[in-house]
Amino acid sequence: MPLFGFFDYGKAGKGIAKDAPVKRPFFKFWELFARKFWKFFFINFIYLLFCLPVVTFGPATVAMTQVMRKFSIEQPIFIFDEFWRAFKSNFKKSFFLGIVNIIFIVSFVYAYVYYDILTSFEPSFFNLALMSMTIAAGAFVLMMHFYIYPQIASLTLSLHQIIRNSLLLVVLGLKGSLVTLVVTVLAFIPIILYPFISIFLLPILPFAWLNFLMVFNTYPVIQKYIITPFYEAKGEKNPEIPDYSGDEGDDEVLFEDFGGREAAIKSKPKPKGKVIK
Predict the structure, then answer these.
(1) 67-98, pLDDT tens digit by residue?
(2) Buried-state track 96-134, b at ≥16 Cβ within 10 A, e below 16
């Protein structure tokens, strides 16, 4: 019997029909969420395990993002293999980003606390404006990271180019960015308010859930403005977008789950993508 559904490779799935109707994003999200629900706990455990030294926060987040990216585009993977491969291959770039993020988080918390104390003693318009600007800047940088990590996981652009892209993608995908921001903030409020309780609940905290929501909302924007134009410039079709327009009958299957008889999945080279101008 599989352990909580994590390692059930012996039972074949029904596959995905080539003429299957395309679901609206809201319903597709909850369908995928329910399908992968128990796997999120496993991914959350791996993520926390790789984050334990703290300084590996960046590589671990990119690795989890890569797994969630494959979930969102419904590509079959072996979870730990995909996580470990992404952790190693993106280590240098994401390690540097992780260190910068830790410095930014500490600076943001310090600035927030400082201006909060300042406005409590002197609630002038100037101090309130500084407080508001600090919060707005922190929110915008957080939304940029919704696009930074998926780009590191999927593209071969430099970190400078990725950050430049992310500045524009936040605006181009503003609706998804704001939804992800609101849910993330609401999820972390009780974690921040009750840190001592949260430490004991780390294995079931929603890091994997939030990461899946982030990728689901932001990766289609990356595909639309970066990945798809890259392939179109080469006269090719984006291979991550399935083609449901076949005319070979209702029984044709786009992907068939072979129930453990499939060979190990090898990673494909990342597309270079482009820098948004």
Answers:
(1) 999 999 999 999 999 999 999 999 999 999 98
(2) ebbeebeeeeeebeebeeebeebbeeeeeeebeebbeeb
